[in-house]
Amino acid sequence: xxxxxxxxxxxxxSNTTTYPTKQRTNSIDSGVANNKIDTSRRLSVDTxxxxxxxxxxxxxxxxxxxxxxxxxxxxxxxxxxxxTRGDHAPSNRMFKFQNxxxxxxxxxxxxxxxxxxxxxxxxxxxxxxxxxWDGSKRKSDVYVFDVANTTWHQTHAPGFPSGGGLNNxxxxxxxxxxxxxxxxGRDGSLRTQRKHGDAYCLRGDPAKRTFRWEHYPIxxxxxxxxxxxxxxxxxxxxxxxxxxxxxxxxxxxxxxxxICNNLYSELKEMIKSNVISPMKKLPxxxxxxxxxxxxxxxxIVYGGETFDGKLREPSNEMFVVTLDTQQHWYNLGQIExxxxxxxxxxxxxQLIVHGGLGKNGVCNETFAIDLIR
Length: 373
What we know:
By secondary structure, this protein is an all-beta fold.
């Protein structure tokens, strides 16, 4: 194994394994209810463009998929998830990634969850988990992890519809003047497959361990495995449905948890100089992908499971989309690794991916994505 199975402390020196070798891999080149703006069509992927991206494996860590993740300063945290394909028993294990090293920081009070979401509050003092699957039912519970004390606490969080829960949903914080978190389903009854779309605002104080659920007044469709990107007062919901690749909502003041700035200027120059051109056909709709804001007006989308059935394994495609009234999609190519249910974050000056389902099961690679220059 690439990491310790024992309970680890929060010290950097405990139960760590370092994988210092950086392996560059060649990329694969194969030729408010009425404020929704639907700009998507269900179309096939355009694979004719030249590949512009490559990967570098920087570490191996826990093999895990459909887990919660977040970043505080220069530390990447992951929690929970599943360890094998089709696993219905979620993990309670927690790890941090710093200086290309994975360290386990699991404690006995860590909740076992998968398909949940994590978000940072209190200027990095707390990690909040929202919803998820506990092995028998969907949950609307909110847990608080005190980063300094490495302790978990379940909060009092009333207001969610009775008999309902969340899994494979998406979250994004409201802008800094607001302490709320926007949560967009999938939500539904605790155990059955019946589900519907809804939007909620979660407000609370992690220090006091009290939160409250409120309905948020926008009309959203049922989704699963989607992602959220904010741009000014616009909210973009990407994927999660077979019939909509991207939908835009106005008047939703959110801000992105992660922003990838290191690739922005080069991508803008590639667009300006026509090194990459707008796709004539939009990508296939997909779920369980990741997206990340890039600079002030771009987003990068990677991986996932496509709805059209043309890909029989997790996607290895990467795209960049412009965030404006009429979005333009650009195909950056296909990297070596296809992933679904993974995490993609910006850490320092690198775009980092970890875990998820791959062609042969749950993956443990941590790799950086960069442009081919």
